[in-house]
Write a structure and sequence with these properties.
The structure is a single chain. The chain has helices at 10-20, 37-40, 44-56, 92-97, 119-132, 141-166, 192-207, 231-246, 274-293, 310-323, 340-348, 369-374, 422-427, 494-507, 511-524, 530-537, 547-561, 568-574, 578-581, 596-599, 622-627, and strands at 76-77, 330-334, 366-367, 397-399, 412-414, 428-430, 434-437, 440-443, 465-467, 476-477, 482-483, 489-493, 585-589, 602-607. By secondary structure, the protein is mostly helical. The chain has a domain at 74-106 and 339-487 and 583-613. The strands form seven sheets. It has a two-stranded antiparallel ribbon with strand order 1-3. Strands 2-12 form a two-stranded antiparallel sheet. Helix 6 (141-166) packs antiparallel against helix 7, helix 8 (231-246) runs parallel beside helix 14 and helix 14 (494-507) packs antiparallel against helix 15 (511-524). The longest helix has 26 residues, at 141-166. The radius of gyration is 25 Å and the shape is globular. One of its GO terms (cellular component) is cell outer membrane. Belongs to the SusD family. Residues 101-207 form the SusD-like N-terminal domain.
Length: 637
C-alpha cells in the first residue's frame, strides 16, 4: 500500500527556522515522486493513501521493543549485557528499566523520533489531511466524514501518547505556515487539564454521529479494513485518557506544582477534583455501551478441534483473549506492522518439544519473580492474604501429583507454583509446568541442559519464567521452520475497559457496581466473586467493603488481568506507585543449575532504582529545550 512520508519533528523545524529563517516548504519534500500536496489530494485514491500515512505514524505496540510499556518496567527482564546481533532491535526499553534514561539522548524518544516515528510528525500529517480533504471532489460525502473522523482520532491519539509520556505538552491544532516567524514557532507546553480537554474534544468529534455518519460502530469489510478506527475505539481511548487524568499522578499531585512555563503558567493542577472521577466513570460507561452495541464481549474459548477439560478451557479463554486474531473481546487491534507479533512470540516462547529444537524460539522475554508472586492463590486472594496457603514456605520444594493442575506429575517445584489461580498458569511457564498448544501439550523442563533451559550465553530466560500469555496456540516449530500465527496487538480489549470502569466506580462510591464488573473478569478467569473469596479465605475478610480496601483489590486485579500487555508500566505511574514497585530487587531462579534444589534457589538479578518524582515522566531532549526556550523541562531532569 502506497504511503506518503512527510518527516517532521518539532525541534528540527524550530532549529532550522531559528538558525536561518529558512523559507523552504517542508511539505514539498515527498518521496514516491510526489512533489506537492496538491497531488496528494487530487483524487479519492491519493487522499486515502495520505490517510494511510496518518495511520502509519502509530507506534508499533506489538513489538516488544517499540511498545513503551513492555520492557521498560519490572514485569519482564532480560540477560545483560545483550550482545549485538539478532537478540534485540533496540536497547532503549531495557535501558529505561535499568535506570539509564537521560536527557541528552532520551530512550524511546517519541517526541523527536524513535523507530522512525515522531508523534509530532503524525500530528502534522493529520493536520495536513484535515486541512486538505475538502479539496477532493470524487469522494462520497459519507466517506469524507468517516475519513475526517479517523484523522481526528489519530490526531487525538498522537497527542495522548505524548501526554502519557511527557505530561503537559504543546497542543498542535493547526500546522504553522512555512512563513511563520521564529517567535511563532516557539511553542509552549499547555497545562495538563487543557491538554486533556483538548484531546477529549477531538475524540468526541471523532465519535460523533450515528448510523452511517462518521466512524462505523464496527468494521463490516473485514477483508480490507480491520484495524481501522471505530466508535468503540474512540470512546475507549477517551475512557482511558479520563481515568488517567483522574488518577493520583494528575489529580491533586503536589509533586510538580513548581513546574511553570517561562510566562509563569502552572502546568500541573495540584488541587484534587472528585469530578474528574465522575467524568471518567461516565466515559467508561459510554465506551462499554458502544462496545456491547458492536457485539464485543468477553472472550470464551471453544475448541475447534477436540473437547478439552475445564482447566484447559479456562486457560485458553485467558490466553486467546490476547492472541486469537480479531477475537470477540478485541476493541482495537493495531496492524501497523503485522510481523511485530511474530517477533514477540519468538521472544516469548522457549523450546517446547525436546525432539524438535529450533533456535528461533528464543524464550528471552522473561517474567520476573515478583510477577509470579503477584497472581492469586486458587482461592482468588493474594498469596500474602490467603489464610489457607503456606506463604512462609513458598520457596520449599514439593513434588507434584496428578491432582496438581498445570504442573507435571512427579516433578519437583517450589510451593510458589502450587495451588495458584488459572491466570498464573495461563500467563507464565516455569520449570515443571505444562504448555498447551493446538498440536499437543508440552512439558517445560528448564534446568541447565534440559530442552527449555539455558544452553549458551544468550537467547534464554534469565529468570526461569516464560511469557506463555503472548504466544498464539497455533504456533508450530520444526527443526527448520516455525509457523507463527500473527495477531493484531490488543491496544484495548473489553476486560481492560471493565477494570477501568470498576476503578472509576469505586472512586465515585459505587462499590456494588464496581464489584459487579470485577467479578465478570474473575468469572472468566475461573474464580469466585471478590465477596466470596475474601469472606472465606482472606485474613481480612471485610477488606472489599471499604473504599480503600476495594481500591487495592481492583488495582491488583488489574495488574493480574493485564499482565504482560504493556499496561502495568503506565498503571503504576498513574497510581503514583512506581516509586514503591520499581525500587524493589529483581529476582529469578538459578537457571545455570541442573538439580532441583540448586535450580530452585532465588537469586538477585538487579537492584532496580526509580527516582521519584523525576522518573514519572520522560525528559524532553536537552537540545529541544535549547532550541526553544519556551519549552520547560520536566521536573528533576
Amino acid at each position: 500500500m502506497k504511503r506518503y512520508t512527510i518527516r517532521f519533528t518539532l525541534s528540527a523545524v524550530l532549529l532550522l527556522l531559528m538558525m536561518n529563517s529558512c523559507k523552504k516548504n517542508f511539505l514539498d519534500v515527498v518521496p514516491d515522486n510526489v512533489s506537492t500536496i496538491d497531488h496528494a489530494f487530487s483524487n479519492r485514491n491519493e487522499a486515502e493513501k495520505f490517510l494511510f500515512t496518518c495511520y502509519d505514524g502509530l507506534p508499533r505496540e506489538g513489538h516488544p521493543e517499540m511498545n513503551a510499556g513492555l520492557n521498560t518496567g519490572d514485569e519482564l527482564w532480560i540477560y545483560w549485557p545483550m550482545p549485538t546481533g539478532e537478540d534485540y532491535s533496540s536497547l532503549s526499553p531495557y535501558n529505561i528499566a535499568r535506570g539509564l534514561q537521560n536527557k541528552d539522548e532520551p530512550e524511546l524518544n517519541y517526541w523527536d523520533g524513535y523507530d522512525g516515528k515522531s508523534m509530532w510528525n503524525g500530528i502534522r500529517n493529520c493536520n495536513i489531511f484535515l486541512e486538505n480533504i475538502d479539496r477532493v471532489k470524487d469522494v462520497e460525502p459519507y466517506m469524507r466524514d468517516r475519513w475526517i473522523a479517523e484523522a481526528k482520532f489519530l490526531k487525538a491519539y498522537f497527542h495522548w501518547y505524548l501526554f502519557r509520556m511527557y505530561g503537559p505538552i504543546p497542543i498542535v491544532d493547526k500546522n504553522l505556515p512555512i512563513y511563520a516567524t521564529p517567535e511563532e514557532v516557539k511553542v509552549s507546553r499547555q497545562s495538563a487539564d487543557s491538554v486533556v480537554n483538548y484531546i477529549v474534544n477531538l475524540l468526541d468529534e471523532a465519535a460523533a454521529g450515528e448510523g452511517s455518519v462518521g466512524l462505523p460502530d464496527k468494521i463490516i469489510n473485514q477483508s480490507t479494513e480491520l484495524g481501522r478506527i471505530t466508535k468503540p475505539i474512540a470512546l475507549a481511548i477517551k475512557a482511558r485518557l479520563l481515568v488517567t487524568a483522574a488518577s493520583p499522578l494528575f489529580n491533586g499531585n503536589p509533586d510538580f506544582a513548581n513546574i511553570k512555563n517561562p510566562d509563569g503558567r502552572v502546568l500541573f493542577n495540584a488541587t484534587y477534583d472528585q469530578k474528574k472521577w465522575e467524568r471518567a466513570a461516565e466515559a467508561c460507561k459510554l465506551a462499554i455501551t458502544a462496545a456491547k452495541n458492536a457485539d464485543i464481549d468477553l472472550y470464551r474459548f471453544i475448541s475447534p478441534t477436540k473437547p478439552v477439560d475445564d482447566f484447559t478451557k479456562t486457560e485458553m479463554s485467558i490466553r486467546n483473549a490476547v492472541c486469537e486474531k480479531w477475537n470477540s473481546e478485541l476493541i482495537w487491534g493495531t496492524t501497523t506492522k503485522p510481523n511485530d507479533t511474530w517477533t514477540l512470540q519468538l521472544y516469548a516462547s522457549p523450546q517446547l518439544d525436546p525432539n524438535v529444537p529450533n533456535s528461533g524460539l528464543k524464550g528471552q522475554l522473561a517474567p520476573t519473580m515478583k510477577m509470579a508472586e503477584l497472581f492469586y492463590t486458587e482461592n482468588g486472594v493474594p498469596i500474602t492474604e490467603d489464610k489457607t496457603w503456606d506463604y512462609a514456605n513458598r520457596f520449599q520444594l514439593r513434588t507434584a501429583t496428578a491432582a496438581d493442575l498445570g504442573i507435571q506429575n512427579g516433578y519437583q517445584s517450589v510451593g510458589l507454583h502450587f495451588d495458584r489461580e488459572p491466570r498464573f498458569y495461563a500467563d507464565m511457564a516455569f520449570d515443571g509446568s505444562t504448555w498447551y498448544m493446538e498440536n499437543g501439550n508440552f512439558n517445560i523442563q528448564a534446568k541447565s541442559g534440559q530442552h527449555s533451559g539455558k544452553k549458551q550465553s544468550r537467547i534464554y530466560s534469565v529468570t526461569g519464567y516464560y511469557t506463555k500469555k503472548l504466544v498464539n496456540w497455533k504456533m508450530v516449530a520444526s527443526a527448520t521452520n516455525i509457523t507463527v500465527e500473527r495477531y493484531p496487538w490488543p491496544v484495548v480489549r473489553l476486560g481492560d475497559l471493565y477494570l477501568l470502569y470498576a476503578e472509576a466506580l469505586n472512586e465515585t462510591d459505587n462499590k456494588a457496581l464496581a464489584l459487579e464488573y470485577v467479578n465478570m473478569i474473575r468469572d472468566r478467569a475461573g474464580l469466585k466473586s471478590v465477596e466470596s473469596s475474601w469472606t472465606n479465605f482472606a485474613k481480612n475478610p471485610n477488606k472489599y467493603t471499604d473504599k480503600n480496601g476495594l481500591r487495592e483489590i481492583i488495582q491488583q486485579e488489574r495488574l493480574i488481568e493485564m499482565a504482560f500487555e504493556g499496561s502495568r508500566f503506565w498503571d503504576l505511574r498513574r497510581w503514583k506507585r512506581a516509586g514503591e514497585f520499581l525500587n524493589q530487587p529483581i529476582y529469578g531462579w538459578d537457571v545455570i543449575q541442573t538439580s532441583y534444589p540448586d535450580y530452585n534457589r532465588r537469586i538477585l538479578l538487579f537492584n532496580q532504582s526509580f527516582n521519584s518524582p523525576r522518573d514519572y515522566f520522560w525528559p524532553i531532549k536537552d537540545n529541544s529545550i535549547l532550541v526553544n526556550p519556551n519549552l520547560v523541562q520536566n521536573g528533576g531532569w
